[in-house]
Specification:
Elements: H1 2-17, E1 22-33, E2 36-43, E3 50-51, E4 54-55, H2 63-75, E5 77-82, E6 88-95, E7 101-116, E8 128-131, H3 133-139, H4 143-150
Parallel strand pairs: 1-7
Antiparallel strand pairs: 1-2, 1-4, 2-3, 2-8, 5-7, 6-7
Length: about 150
Amino acid sequence: MARAIYGTWIDLVCAFFKRPRRLQVAAVCYRETHGRKEVLLITSRGTGRWVIPKGWPVDGKDAPGAALQEAWEEAGVRSGCVSKEAVGLYCYEKELSTGLPVSVETLVFTIEVDQMDEDYPEAAERRLTWVSPGAAASMVQEPELQDILRRM
């Protein structure tokens, strides 16, 4: 009996201190080349692993607009047709600049890329590559994002 009460107490205390998930928006940027779809991946600034452009919501922009803004800043996507609705979401743990970890729920929008620019805000900090959706799925770490990419 004491174990059950202790377990319930621990669950309540942990829930009290657990922070809610933060929201980010992300962009799966794609293009058609010779009849085949290609997806744009970029490297993260911290670890250099392959990711898609993503970031915090932007004041004055809706979620699809914020996803396009992130695609511009992080990958040089100048213009494209953005999905009005999220095509999926994935969750991951992010370490903030303060060192604290935070759970993040990321809404994913697609962008059919019309125009790219080589000179963009984070050009010197990232590499980018165009790959098939299947290859992209094998290059990212988050299982839910892998599923989204495979569905492309």
